[in-house]
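Practice record 12: protein with SN-glycerol-3-phosphate.
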Amino acid sequence: MEFFLDTVNLEEITHYQKVLPLAGVTSNPTILKAAGNIDFFTHLQAVKERIGEASLHVQVVGETVDEMILDAETIINKLGKEVYIKIPINENGLEAIKRLKEREFNLTATAIYTELQGFLAIGAGVDYLAPYYNRMENINVDAPTVIESLAQAIRTTQAQSKILAASFKNTAQMNRAIRAGAHALTADPDIYRQGLAMPSIQKAVTDFHNDWVETFKSPSIQGLCQ
Ligand code: G3P
C-alpha cells in the first residue's frame, strides 16, 4: 500500500514526509497554480530533493502527441529520468504513452473517469494509473466499481500497473478506494490531517497519558528510571 501527497507545498511535504510512509508526490497544473509564484523547474527540483527516494509525478500540459512528448522530454531532461510523467488518457495521450514506453519513461496515466480508459492504460503498460474518485462521483460514475474492475483486470492479466487513486475530498472516499482494490492513494495533506485529527483519537491519547501519570506519578516511562 502506497501513500502519496497531491501537493507541491514544500512545508507540507517536509512535515508529512516525517509522518506518512510516503511513496511520492503527485502534481498537476492546477496544483502548481495553487502554489502561487514559483519557478517551475526550481520548485520541482526542490520537491524532488526533499522527498529523496520517493517518486515525483509531473504532468504534461500539451494537448497534441508531439506537445506531450516534448513536455515529457523536457521534464526528464531538467529533473531526471526517474521522474514519472503523468499523461491524460485520451487518444493523443495513449499515443504519447506508447512512444514514451518504448523509450522506457516512467509513466502515470491520469484523468481516468472510466473503465475503458483504465483498461487501455493497463494495456499500454503504464506504471501507475490515476482514477479520479471525487470527479467520478460528481458525474454519477460509481468510483468503487470502476476501481474494482481495474484491480480485477490487473489481477487477471498479471499486469504490473498499480492503481493510484486520486481526487479525494474526504477520508471516506480514500477508504472506499482502498476497499475497491486501489494499490496507492494520493491526497491533499489536509485530507490526511482530517483523518488523523479526530477528537476521539486525541481523547484516547490524553486519557491514557493521564491514567499513566496518576498511577505512576511520573510524566514518562523513562521518568521511572531516574
Ligand atoms: O492528481 C490529480 C487529481 O488529484 C485531481 O484532483 O481535486 O482536482 O479533483 P481534483
